[in-house]
Write a structure and sequence with these properties.
Blueprint: H1 14-42, H2 45-50, E1 56-57, H3 58-65, H4 69-81, E2 86-89, E3 95-98, H5 101-108, H6 118-121, H7 123-128, H8 133-139, H9 149-175, H10 179-185, E4 188-192, H11 198-206, E5 211-215, H12 219-231, E6 237-240, E7 253-259, H13 268-278, E8 279-290, H14 296-302, H15 306-321, H16 337-346, E9 351-354, E10 362-368
Parallel strand pairs: 4-5, 4-7, 5-6, 7-8
Antiparallel strand pairs: 1-3, 2-3, 8-10, 9-10
């Protein structure tokens, strides 16, 4: 038999073929509708619907947003067909559109912890990364977060701020042993991967006797953090690029926080070692990262969003983690509890505790020397 001969063709089941095609184009529908969600957010369409006391027809919705009715109507049809917006057809044929209270919370209420527009804000930048992916697949080297431009930083900020504003101070910090008391008395806290600085500024306002320093390598995020700091009246916060002003290595930091960033780093093990050197022997590291399990099979079985997570990893998280040659490339689902525990131990930490904090995406750990 010729070793290079093609295998015999397998008969195609026409019903399975139809189902697979439907499954495939369902993925395309999701991608296209995601683009429509981005437009609804950017154009104020969701805000207009939220502000209405009753359903709006496309003419009134267009008038309230200053947009062309025909475009608004087609957008609204997409949203209604996707089950995101409610549509009601009157006897005279007029179709009106409305948001349920739950949809309004997620789509149009930035103050609500379930607000979900951050990832859709940066959708064009995330998808534009597809243009760079063929070269990355060939070279093995990815792209850092600043490759997504200023709007990429804004999208991440909008993703995390609502939940942090609602839960960081009343729920997360009190779950840590003695940290709130320490911050009230006066302590040094370093937030690594601080992004646009929202958590730092929130904590700095709540604990005026403590000092807070945020570190990030994203110039777009740091620019936003420094602008917000300049607009406020806080004298106990600062933001630095660690390549210019490095994390202390003398055990002088009392608390370290890392929010959703360790899995994005090119050298996470080295960073954990740097955190250990920075922390006092009685210090605390709050490690927050994506909920992940140890194997692909476990992630797919337990996480209904696994395919989204792996795809975002290629376009963003793993790309960042491979943005330097030799990067670890953990990726979005790469830092399971067991992996984090083992890496922390290798960095010199001896205590590792999962916190009882309920979050749809993240796991919370208290790590101590």
């Amino acid at each position: 038999m010729n070793a290079h001969a093609l295998p015999e063709p397998t008969a195609i089941d026409p019903d399975k073929l139809k189902l697979f095609s439907f499954h495939l184009f369902g993925k395309l529908e999701g991608a296209v509708t995601a683009g429509m969600i981005h437009l609804g957010d950017q154009l104020g369409l969701y805000s207009a619907l939220r502000g209405a006391t009753a359903g709006l027809g496309s003419v009134e919705l267009a008038d309230r947003t200053g947009l062309a009715e025909r475009w608004v109507r087609e957008w609204a049809y997409n949203q209604a067909a996707a089950g995101l917006v409610e549509a009601t057809t009157a006897p005279d044929g007029l179709v009106t559109f409305a948001l349920t209270p739950e949809a309004a919370a997620v789509l149009a209420t930035p103050e609500h912890p379930a607000y979900g527009m951050g990832m859709f804000h940066r959708l064009p930048q995330t998808m534009r990364a597809l243009e760079d992916m063929p070269a990355s697949f060939r070279s093995g080297v990815g792209h850092d977060y600043d490759s997504h431009g200023p709007e990429g930083a804004v999208g991440i900020e909008r993703s995390f701020e609502p939940w942090n504003r609602a839960f960081l101070l009343p729920v997360v910090l009190p779950a840590l042993d003695g940290v709130v008391e320490r911050l009230r008395a006066g302590a040094r806290l370093a937030d690594i991967g601080c992004g646009a600085g929202s958590a730092v500024l929130l904590m700095a306002a709540a604990f005026p006797k403590s000092t807070f320093v945020g570190y990030d390598i994203s110039q777009h995020a740091l620019a936003r953090a420094r602008a917000k700091l300049a607009d406020g009246a806080l004298a106990n916060a600062a933001f630095h690029d660690p390549r210019d002003s490095s994390l202390p290595d003398d055990g002088s930091v009392d608390v370290v926080t890392t929010f959703d960033c360790i899995h994005d780093m090119t050298h996470p093990q080295e960073m954990m070692g740097a955190i250990r050197r920075a922390l006092a022997d009685d210090g605390t590291w709050l490690l927050v990262d994506i909920k992940a399990l140890d194997t692909f099979e476990q992630n797919v079985k337990k996480n209904p969003m696994a395919s989204l997570m792996y795809g975002i990893s290629v376009l963003s998280c793993m790309s960042s983690a491979l943005s330097e040659p030799g990067g670890a490339g953990l990726g979005t689902l790469g830092l399971s509890e067991n992996t984090a525990r083992s890496m922390a131990a290798s960095a010199g930490f001896t205590r590792f505790r999962k916190l009882p904090v309920d979050h749809a995406v993240n796991a919370f750990y208290e790590v101590r020397p």
